[in-house]
Structure formats: structure tokens, C-alpha cells
């Protein structure tokens, strides 16, 4: 017996349709409750929306990441990256990546990043208006890569332009002409990273990038593949996370006040909760290598599956009051960083960086306000991002006298 395909009710807009992208949550809520393993006729994809099922998609070896990413062709001659491989190749590529992004590599960066955050906040016009995306998120993300890669100050603009252009490759549903431009930008980025790595190594610069480059477990192409993936997979999501976070945070004045006085542990909990509610990477792709029965339905072999992380992150089976912002939510098993073998390698770095910025920002500018109108979400699906987020700094900053934040050096 065949069952009729389930369709979204008419009053809900498809989450990939232009009008549905601004607020996909109602459609995902309906799918999670009514058809948690949903065959989407428009895209041919299977949308998996319940938390438990998404965890299975991310962890079970019958869901191939290598096949899930196969549509993402590239023209920079790099070998497959860890994101596009399955075990055992995946482990071989990921293990050395810890030299670049593991906790021991990023912890020593905290003090310098704290100084970068202070310098960034010092530059904001007292009492003025800024765009949180352009004036906070992007320079913060670039500062992070400057520390990881040892980028000279004079090259930051060039690096940022390359990172932005290549980031187009994150969105699997981008128009073909833009995708071609993105692929060519990824090639230019690799070329730049190759030259930079050679120069930094020759100059004896000691940063995570040169530690990775010195590791003989990887070929040069594989090492460059990790750098390329770190930039394309990370620069824009990190940059955009700041705007997304402030959009959630600023209307809730109690949350703002509590974050201003947050210690390191509390700040990290807050970062995870903000990631839960608006994950910059809302879904990730896999292909089934076999028939798989999930709690919410059965998938055939060869099914192209999206684990909809942003839907799982609001699953009431796992999160009490799932649409509410609770900065002290703990435990918080959100999937904003994915899960299983491909769990975001930079999660420690992202938590550390955002936990440095957000408390200092709202501590210095306690009257910070966001816009009153509807948020201006960009059309791109990955990363989920605001086109701009104008923020009123609300009067003169509270003077902190250059005092290092309590987080500095202790992470
Ligand atoms: C808020 C910012 C970020 C978010 C939300 C995020 C999210 C994610 C997610 C969901 C995955 C899993 C993808 C999958 O399973 O297919 C992932 C993987 C990855 N991320 Fe992040 N990421 C962020 C920032 C970064 C940054 C800054 C870097 C590098 C500096 C980075 C490097 C990586 C790498 C290398 C992987 C692949 C891991 C593997 O395949 O084993 N990410 N990230």
C-alpha cells in the first residue's frame, strides 16, 4: 500500500521558498510534529526535523557525508576535505586538524583575542549607530583568523575579501552563476593560503597554521584543504553569528543585564543558547547507504537527506519552552555545531570568541538597542544571516579602562 505524500498546509510557506526563508520556524515546527521524516517533492530531499532522528543522521555510518556533499564540485584541485569524507579517511584528515583548531591550539589565543575585542569596541563611535554585521561580526571573524593564521595587519582586507567571496560555496541552493564565481573564489583563496603558509613558515611564525603545516601526516594539498575548509566553513558563520545573536538578545533586557555581568561559564552557556535558537548552519546533508528506519519514518537507500539542525534545536521533546531564550539553559544538547564524527572542529574557538565579545559589548554599552522593525534576513539558506543589523549604542560606553576581561588567558 502506498501512502499519499504529505504536504505542508497552505497557510505555511515552504522554508526554502523566497518568502519562507525569513522565518522557516513555523514550517519546521509543523513538519517536526506531523511528518518528521518528510519527502520534499520540490527539492527531492528528505527533511529530518526531530532531534533524536537528526542525532542518528549525524552519528550513524549509514548516513554518508562523502556522498552527501557530492554535489559540491570544486575547481581548485584540492583533495577531498574532512567534511566530505567518511571514516576511516575522515579520521586521518581530522586528527591533524586539532593542531589548528583543537582546545590546546585555541586556548593560548584567548589573551590576544581579548585584546582584539577591546580594540574593536574602542573603535565604535561613542553613542552612535553601527551595523552589527559589518562593524562587529566581520572584523571579529577576521581577527580570529589573523590569530590562527598569523595574518599581517596589512593583509586583513584582502583576506576578508577572499573569505567573503569564497563563502558563497556554503549555500547549496545558490544560483549556478554565483556558485561558479564562488568556486573560482575558493581557488583564489587556496592560492593565497598556499603563499601565506610558505611565507609564515619561512619567517618562523609560531601560530596554529604553521603547526599544522609542519605536520607530516598530511600532504600539502590535504593541509591546504583543511585551511580552505576552515575559512569557507567558518569565517562567515562566525561573522554572522554575532548579528543573529544580538537580534535574539537585545529585546530581552533581563538577558542583556545578566550577560553583562556573566563569568566565563555563564557566557559560554549563553553562547550555546543563542546558537540553539538561530543556528548559522541550519542544516547539513547526508546520503543513505542503506534502508534506514528512523523514529519518524523510513528512508530508502540513496536518499538525499537534510538533518535540519535548526528544527531539532527547537524540539519540545528535548528543550523545555523551546522557542524561549534562556541564557542559563543547561544541559543544552543543541545541534548548532552538528554532532557525531563531523562535529564542528572549531566549537571551542567559537565559544571562546563569542564569550569574549558578547559580555564585553553589553557591559560597555548597557543601553544597546536593536531596530524595532522586522529583521532583515538574507535570502541565502546557509549561513542563516541578517543582511544588516543596525544597532544603537545608546549613549557613552561604560569605561572599563582597558582592564583585561576576566576571560583573558583563562580559557
Ligand atoms: C558560529 C560559527 C560556526 C557554526 C555554527 C559551525 C557549525 C558547524 C557544523 C554544523 C558543522 C558540521 C557539518 C556537518 O556535519 O556536515 C561544522 C563542521 C566544521 N566546522 Fe564549524 N561552525 C562554525 C564556525 C567554524 C569556524 C570558525 C571554523 C574554523 C575556524 C569551523 C570549522 C569547521 C570544520 C573544519 C568542520 C568539519 C568537521 C568535520 O568534518 O570533521 N567552524 N561546523
Secondary structure blueprint with pairings:
Blueprint: H1 25-34, E1 37-40, E2 45-48, H2 51-59, E3 63-64, H3 65-68, H4 89-101, H5 103-106, H6 110-122, E4 129-131, H7 132-149, H8 156-166, H9 176-202, H10 208-213, H11 220-249, H12 253-260, H13 264-277, E5 283-288, E6 292-294, E7 297-299, E8 304-308, H14 309-312, H15 347-364, E9 390-392
Parallel strand pairs: 2-8
Antiparallel strand pairs: 1-2, 3-5, 4-9, 5-8, 6-7
Helix pairs in contact: 6-7, 6-15, 7-11, 8-9, 9-11, 11-13, 12-15, 13-15
The structure holds protoporphyrin IX containing FE.
Protoporphyrin IX containing FE binds next to helix 4, helix 11 and helix 15.
What would you say this structure looks like, in words?
Residues 401-411 have low confidence and may be disordered. Strand 6 (292-294) and strand 7 form a beta hairpin. Helices cover 46% and strands 8% of the residues. The protein has one domain: Cytochrome P450 (Cytochrome p450, Orthogonal Bundle). Helix 11 crosses helix 13, helix 12 packs across helix 15 and helix 13 crosses helix 15 (347-364). The longest helix is centred in the middle third of the chain and has 30 residues, at 220-249. It has 15 helices and nine strands. It is of the alpha+beta class and 411 residues long. A five-stranded mixed beta sheet has the order 1-2-8-5-3, with helices on both faces. It has helices at residues 25-34, 51-59, 65-68, 89-101, 103-106, 110-122, 132-149, 156-166, 176-202, 208-213, 220-249, 253-260, 264-277, 309-312, 347-364, and strands at residues 37-40, 45-48, 63-64, 129-131, 283-288, 292-294, 297-299, 304-308, 390-392. Protoporphyrin IX containing FE binds at residues 65, 82-83, 94, 101, 229-230, 233-234, 237-238, 241, 279-281, 284, 336-338, 342, 344-346, 349-350.
